[in-house]
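Contributing new records

If you add data, match the layout below exactly. Sequence lines come first and carry their own label; structure lines follow with theirs. Keep one chain per record. Anything else will be rejected by the validation script.
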Amino acid sequence: MGDGLTVLARLARVIAVTPADDPLPVRLCRACVEVLGADGGALTLASTTNQRLTLSTSNGVSAQIEDLQDVLGEGPGQDAYRDGRTVITQVDGFSDDAFPVFSEMAGDLTGPLTVWAIPMHPGGATIGVITVYRRTGQLSCSLEDAQLLADSVGAALLDDPSAHGLAPFSGWSDRARVHQATGMVVAQLGIGAEDALAILRAHAFARSTTMSLIAVEVIERRLGFTRTDSTSGTSSIDTPDDCTTKEEP
């Protein structure tokens, strides 16, 4: 494409024809997918790598990619946010040395594809990531133009109330549940928030589910963590199927 103004013009046109009653992040996500010539994509917002919020996904494959990164704590979006640079990875289960677990599991879920994670840093600091994928081929514009698009979308999100929880948006309730569940695990086990979040991730990973669903089980007390021996440091884990395991913190 080669012309940043053309990218922004296409962005405006695509947003203009999407349903006006959809939240802005949903419309921006759809526009990014179309302008970049991708098969699907997602918008995530974050203040730290542990506080990623998926604002919108364009389809089920994109949702699976984002859920998997949340559970594993690794993936192209994580690195793009942390390093402030575009990260490209081949998801085929064997050729990605950077994210071997993510690549293998994503390949099993989605089949082979290429993922581009482009940071949004309209004011210099990275505020989130646009993640898109294609089954075959390249994006329809250069990485330079893709970065301009990402920064422009980031600027739009900074001015959008629904991206900051000031208007109803379901993604924030999902993240709030994870925060609440993390706090409950902190209280139950007397550990730090980062360790509590790692425990929730481990359970989500082991049971092939999402962080949000694990959080609901903790909040509804269908999954509980109770310290039983303060001297040995062991903890009793009460799971939904009434089995009890022992974990070493």
